[in-house]
Amino acid sequence: VHPYVQFALGILTAASQLLINQANLDNEVFGLLNTVKDLYEFLMEKDTIENMDSMKETLRRISQEMSAAALFVVKYSKKKNILIRIGDSLVSDPQTVARGHIKNLGDLMQQYRDRAIRDIQINMSHVLEDLNLEGMAYAAGAGLNTTKKCLDGTRTEILKDITDWITTCDANAPRILWLHGQAGRGKSAIAHTIASWIEDVGAPGACFCFARDRQAERREEKILTTIARDLADRDPAFRRALSNVVSHNLALKTTCDVVQQWKRFILEPLSKINGEIVGNVVVVIDALDESGPHESRKNILSLLKSPEATHLPANFRILLTSRPLSDIARVMRDAPHVKATSLDDVPRGLVERDIQLYVSKELGCLPSIGTTEVQNVVKKSDGLFEWARLACGFIVPGRAGETWEERYTNLMALESEEGRTLLDTTYFAILKGGIPRSAKGLERYRSVMQQVVMTLEPLPMAALNSMRKKYPNEQDHYDIILILEFMSPVLGGIVDRISAVRPLHASFYDFLTDHSRSGIYFIDTSNTQHTRDLAFASLQILRDNLQFNICELESSYLANSEVSDLSKRIKEEIPHHLSYACRFWAQHLWKTGFDLELAGLVKAIVGSEKILFWLEVLSLLGMVGKGVDALDTVATWLQVSQDGSKDILALVKDGIKFIQNFGSVIVHSTPHLSQDWLELL
């Protein structure tokens, strides 16, 4: 059975039971129960099952309609006020609502039988109330990425096992499933596929992803606030319960304490709405091993093994993926409420079947590619999806003077070398084929890759180039495409030049930063000169690019939230490199030893109107609170100096005092900045 159908059947069963439990049903609501029965039987018909692949969009819409109907059933069964959006109208009459769901479900079943796709408006069975959750920390960009999903038709067995675990009615089912395996096994693809299915069918859920190149954001401190806010966006009952917890409590909204977050943002709302969520709630946490050092996830692991996790509601599921690092394995392997599944144990035949489907699709565009070549790539992958992806990327783009056949032959000739896996050997071959081995070529390679790896947030190529133009050494002011042009098999953001330049897989980062594996292509992240270059460039960008009223806001009487096109203005007026410099200059400075030239640049910012313009950008980005952290870091950096930086330190402390006194006003309305600064003076 297709997962869409499994999720729909789970929701159908739960909703039907709620209706059956009612002593008296209105005629129309009784009709909805009959329609649900008809739908259940329809979904199990042989003809329905045989045509699922061609009618997935209709199945998705059936699941969405059933999710919407289930929310209505909850309100009806609990005698709660009903307010439902049907088209452009708000309806509160249960008979009208029930008739709407009956009609839609009937139309969708007929649409499936006719093998036709027609536009049927899904009736929203809830209107999200405008409850104030603003101020709760949220990890932007940590959610679902549909480009990472499994190729259709692959990983069917493991996806079926996970779907069965999610939809089971067994109250004793483990609340957590830990999916683990070595790098390159395809854990993230499976996680994003499940998260995508949950979103497609309209079921309540959330997806939170860690990433090695986002560790500077300290996502581990925002994981549960982000998950709670996402669940609130998907379910009105949870939203109300969460709002009741955090309303009028700014300290709780902004807490970094994950233990408090767990108890107040997850457990407490769930306890208050017991029985109001129909179907299973699924939270996907991907790549926990990429959170950072083991200390970064210590508290998260402690919560996942706690008695509270054991007694989560019977319809609550957490899908967790990671490599089997020792600290994670110690917690997950022996917990009775955790189901551990290893991708390393999947039968080789199933893995090779799926890799063959992937390789056939990726190399199918090449002339005269045959079954033999595809099969050779599959065999050489040794069961690693990441190697197969890398191999296809290596073969397809080509390079000057080489045909795809020659690149294929070179790839097949690679063998694991002593001390290197085949994956490492392939990384080495890609770099060897694209990077000049001259002294200048290697010097530029190291400089560019240090920039890519050591920036605290991945940046697109244009932003990396803008930063590089501010490096102190003019010899470094070259276009980084000189180095990155042939690195698209291992780096994103090279072909489209719009998305961020980042390793396509965490294993490439590990390879680069381990000298025993990468040899002459080793990237030393402890290089103090490059740390200084990033600090210098960030300060130069602030000095040269900050300006008064950068987004041209017309009035201080309007709150930031009331400026209708504020997001558009921010995107147009605050380029990536300026946004980055505003958020991370202090962290780069902290990693650099005290330096008079850098101290002079700091003074040029904090000793002039530029500090106001910097705070203005932070206000527009919703990050004024980080201003105090940044200036505290700068103050600590200045205190190691013994050569008269007291005047700069005093200016920094004035800035801290200003944010502490007027931060709440600045957050509300950016144009108040100048007036507040004059008041302080």
Automatic annotation (TrEMBL):
Task: Fetch the Pfam families from UniProt.
Answer: NPHP3_N
Which lineage? Answer: Eukaryota, Fungi, Dikarya, Basidiomycota, Agaricomycotina
Give the domain of life: Eukaryota
Q: Does the keyword Nucleotide-binding apply?
A: no
Q: Establish whether keyword Repeat is in the entry.
A: yes
Tell me the ranges covered by the NACHT domain, including all copies.
175-324
Tell me which UniProt keywords the record has, alphabetically: Repeat
| Species of the source | Pisolithus tinctorius Marx 270
What is this protein's record name? NACHT domain-containing protein
Looking at the UniProt entry, the stretches that span the membrane are: none
Kindly give the PROSITE patterns that the UniProt entry links to this protein: NACHT
